[in-house]
Each structure stands twice: as C-alpha cells, then as structure tokens.
Amino acid sequence: MIVTDLTAVNGKPGVYFIAVDGRPVGKIVAEDIFKFGLVVNKTISEKTYSELVNRVEYLLYYYQALAYASRRLRSKEELRRYLFGRKCIGKVADSIIDELDRLGIVDEQKLVEAYIHDRELSSPMSKKMLTLKLKQKKIDQQTIDYELSKNDYDDTDALDALIAKKANLTAYKKNKNKFFRYLISRGFNYEDIAKRIGRPE
Q: Which helix (H) or strand (E) holds 23?
C-alpha cells in the first residue's frame, strides 16, 4: 500500500488530507505524519493503514464533538449522547470525552455554575428542581451541592424573584390558581407560595 496524497487542508493549519493507493482515507493532523512516518510514495503496511483509518475516524468524531461542545457548555452525558447519535462507538466516545475534559472544554462544574446563574436571571426555580434538571444531565450530586452552597442559593429568595418577575403578566395576574400551579411546577414549597400570593381558590 502506497501513500499517494498528503496535502495540507486550506484554512485548517496542521490538518492534512491523505490518500492511499489513490483512494481517500481522510484528514489527519501533523503529529500523525511523524507518528506514522508518512511520505508521499512511501509504502505502508496493512497494520499502519488500519491504524490510519481508525485515526481518521477518531478525528472526525473529535472535531464534531469539539464544535458541539464549543457552542455552549455541555455535560459529559450530553456529549456521549451526541456522539452515539453520530454512530460513534462507546470506546472512541469515552476517549474523546476524556480528551475534551483534560483540555477543560468539558467542565461540569462550570456548567452547573452557569446553569444556576442563568436560572436565577431568567426563570428561578427551587433547589429541588435545579438538582433534578442537572441530574438529568448526569451531573454528580457532589458537584451540584457544591455549587448551590457556593452560590448560597436560597429557595425563598428564588421564589420571591420569580413572583416579582411573573406576577404582572396578564396570564397570571387574572388567574391566581394558574399562577399557583406554575410556581408549584418550579419546585417551590406549597406553604411558601401560599404565604406570598394566598392559597388557590
């Protein structure tokens, strides 16, 4: 088997296109050229060719995961589901996630911190509901508890903020029962809500 093309990809420094026996294999990076000793017109073994194919597949999924994780903070579970949806096998997916974690691109503590902050600004919810939403992302309880404690997150403060934000909306201003149900759906305590807006009729 002979390397018949090894060309730098325009606009992607350090990325190269490789073909073997005139057939495209895919894209690799500069370190792969040195690792496999690749030179145009050089003969490579079946073993090296197989390793190249695996490396091309890995990099394809890696850059897809990198783009997905770069759009917003993601949990490891979200990345795993994304890669599985792309037909990436478990062992390769785990390796990619470990690498992104090592690089700090996947940071579940930052994700929890940002999620709590965003909820406080846009749509406050109870600790119980926050915890449920984050556990759905497979975030461990210790990380959730740490960030809630660090932010001194308080259910009553969150409830007050949500009432202040929503109370004057027409849908709730004229329908206390509907407003009550909405506040309950955000995980807040029945009695805490009743103290603020009265019991449902």
A: strand 23-29
* pLDDT tens digit sequence for 177-195: 999 999 999 999 999 999 9
Residues of the chain with pLDDT under 50: none
Read off the tokens for 181: 């149900």
Which position has the token pair 């145009």? 40
Q: Give start and end residues of each alpha helix (H) in the chain.
A: 30-36, 46-71, 76-85, 90-102, 108-122, 127-136, 141-150, 155-166, 170-173, 176-185, 190-197
Give the residue from 26, 36, 108 showing the smallest Cα distance to 63: 26
Q: How far apart are CA 41 and CA 150, in angstroms?
A: 60
**Tokens 């730098």, residue located:** 8
